[in-house]
């Protein structure tokens, strides 16, 4: 199978969808398939791909009408004769679909991979997206249920394949949080969260919740790993809430495992997600978790068994749940249950098995 994973995400952006691409590419290549990463030149995605020794095809796509992008993709298609192209942005699907279906009239399959909901029930999507797409791969049944309700396709058009979490390197040294702690701290409780500093991730609600927690437990510390356009705004909120000694924005970390190894609790305060990788990684590390009830979270974990699930945008519910975890001597049991659950149900091998079978069956039917 010759596969192109195409992603025109901005040069400086990196997230769960890009991690999925590299994980999928590495594992399919190890199984003997020919897989390429198509992305913008000089992008973070290109840098990460090359660091993993993955073959990269520079394709700059800036819009639905990116002529140079179409021409470059056409050139690579004639060289590689892809069996499947998976587009990770809507414009990737439109451009790839237009090329192979309208210009080349080839049998190449074009799928859309969506880790979060990228379509709504707008007529523009029915006529500007559907004609160029052979199917959608997503990671939650909540997205499939929403899409199927539009009535635009049959029940097999949207395929759910859960994300997998890679085996963790237990030899990595844990992150040193001590440099951030007040000298008088004897028994710190470390709370960790990670993600882009954007509205979607809900960190403003976490910072609001932290105020009540710190009043009750002054030796509780919050660490948020990530970067983004809200960094200044969130720092101002931390100062305004009088939390400069207890809440810290610690920047982007390529690998969050060292931080998880020293964390007592992981929190996902997002307003929307697909199947959140950071939450899955935290559970895989055996860290107790609190998550907002968004999209695939209820498919990944069970409330009260693997952690606590709360409503989004509710700092009062969040602070109450954090206090419950701090004061519950047996709270770590949920972390151990979560670790077993992820190990049994969300492995990379299982994810790649399903991707491989799905794509090969599509090729067989098309031919």
UniProtKB/TrEMBL annotation:
InterPro entries per UniProt: Glyco_trans_1, Glyco_trans_4-like_N
CDD domains: GT4_GT28_WabH-like (cd03811)
UniProt xrefs under SUPFAM superfamilies: UDP-Glycosyltransferase/glycogen phosphorylase
Domain (Glycosyltransferase subfamily 4-like N-terminal): residue spans on this chain: 14-166
Domain of life: Bacteria
Transmembrane regions listed in the UniProt entry: none
Domain annotation Glycosyl transferase family: ranges: 185-334
Matches recorded under PANTHER family: GLYCOSYLTRANSFERASE (PTHR12526)
Name of the protein in its database record: Glycosyltransferase
UniProt organism field: Carboxylicivirga linearis
């Amino acid at each position: 199978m010759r596969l192109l994973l195409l992603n025109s995400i901005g040069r400086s952006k990196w997230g769960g969808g890009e991690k999925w691409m590299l994980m999928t590419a590495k594992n399919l290549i190890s199984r003997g398939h020919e897989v390429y990463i198509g992305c913008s030149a000089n992008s973070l995605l290109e840098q990460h791909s090359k660091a993993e020794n993955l073959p990269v095809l520079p394709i700059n796509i800036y819009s639905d009408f990116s002529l140079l992008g179409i021409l470059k993709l056409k050139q690579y298609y004639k060289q590689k004769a892809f069996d499947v192209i998976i587009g990770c942005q809507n414009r990737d699907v439109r451009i790839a679909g237009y090329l192979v279906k309208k210009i080349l009239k080839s049998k190449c399959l074009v799928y859309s991979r969506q880790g979060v909901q990228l379509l709504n029930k707008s007529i523009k999507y029915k006529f500007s997206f559907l004609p160029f797409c052979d199917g959608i791969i997503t990671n939650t049944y909540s997205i499939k249920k929403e899409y199927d309700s539009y009535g635009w396709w049959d029940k097999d058009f949207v395929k759910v394949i859960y994300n997998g979490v890679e085996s963790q390197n237990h030899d990595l040294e844990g992150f040193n949080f001590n440099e951030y702690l007040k000298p008088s701290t004897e028994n710190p409780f470390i709370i960790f969260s990670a993600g882009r500093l954007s509205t979607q991730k809900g960190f403003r609600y976490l910072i609001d919740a932290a105020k009540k927690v710190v009043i009750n437990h002054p030796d509780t510390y919050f660490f948020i790993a990530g970067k983004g356009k809200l960094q200044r705004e969130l720092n101002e909120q931390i100062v305004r809430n009088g939390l400069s000694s207890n809440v810290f924005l610690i920047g982007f970390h390529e690998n969050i495992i060292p931080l998880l190894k020293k964390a007592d609790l992981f929190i996902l305060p997002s307003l929307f997600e697909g199947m959140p990788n950071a939450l899955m990684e935290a559970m895989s590390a055996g860290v107790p978790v609190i998550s907002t009830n968004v999209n695939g979270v209820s498919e990944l974990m069970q409330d009260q068994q693997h952690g606590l699930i709360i409503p989004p945008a509710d700092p009062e519910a969040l602070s109450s749940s954090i206090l419950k975890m701090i004061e519950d001597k047996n709270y770590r049991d949920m972390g151990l249950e979560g670790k077993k659950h992820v190990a049994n149900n969300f492995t990379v091998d299982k994810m790649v098995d399903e991707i491989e079978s799905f794509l090969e069956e599509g090729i067989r039917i098309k031919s």
